[in-house]
Design a protein that fits this description.
This protein is an alpha/beta fold and 228 residues long. The protein has a single domain, classed as Rossmann fold (3-Layer(aba) Sandwich). It is built from seven helices and twelve strands. The strands form three sheets. It has an eight-stranded mixed β-sheet with strand order 1-12-11-2-3-7-6-8, with helices on both faces. 39% of the residues are buried. The chain binds S-adenosylmethionine (SAM). The site of S-adenosylmethionine (SAM) has 19 residues, from helix 1 and strand 12.
Length: 228
Amino acid sequence: MKWNQFVCDDAFNIFPKIDDQSVDLTFTSLPDISQGPWGKDIKEYQAFQNKSCDEMARITKPKGFVVISQTDRKINGEILPNHITYYQAMIRNGFKLKDYKIMVRNNPVDKRDMYYFNYQHTLVFTKEGTIKRGGDWLKNIMVYETQRLGNVKGPFNLYVWNEQFIRLILDYPSKENDKVIDPFAGSGVVPYIAKKMKRQYFGIELDKEVYDKSLFNRVAPFEQFMGV
Ligand SMILES: C[S@@+](CC[C@H](N)C(=O)[O-])C[C@H]1O[C@@H](n2cnc3c(N)ncnc32)[C@H](O)[C@@H]1O
């Protein structure tokens, strides 16, 4: 597979093209249950989460890392504990939970949300990888501004991860020239920063409208969009 691309496709069309144990860092936020065909069918959604974890575990090197950062949410009058699903799926695939952090999305519009929490569980899985402990990696609770990807119509809001958060996750569990993939890349911010940090990158986004408004395809420079 040719690296250094951000493509508009279904991740499950691309996964079969990626060799077993060939990726250094798989870093993603899977689609929320509202960002797909699942409606309120939790069982179907969890089957998708499990299938995704199986593929992410397969393509990642034993010394590499799978980092999943996503919020739990409320649905059908109960909590849908996504981080527990990911934990169980990755353990089933022979990974261990190496680190666990909370990323607070410090966005004022989120403060009274009925369905979402304003923090994401950031789960760092590996089989045999090590991370140098020190610096910002020692923070267990990280607070960042997030922004919405502007003008995307449709059933969901897309919150774009903060550059500092992505830099931190890329900096510690990966190094220059490593292969970094985000199979559910949304705005494309992970491959975008991975490129800036001299990693080989690959991003996949299914939704054409999101993809067209992604950071790779924007006229305005990324820095202007992020307000930095
Ligand atoms: C939680 S968002 C990612 C947001 C991203 N981390 C950011 O900061 O911009 C998940 C994305 O996965 C996309 N998606 C859903 N199903 C997909 C699939 N089968 N293959 C690729 N992308 C998919 C959704 O359209 C959505 O944009």
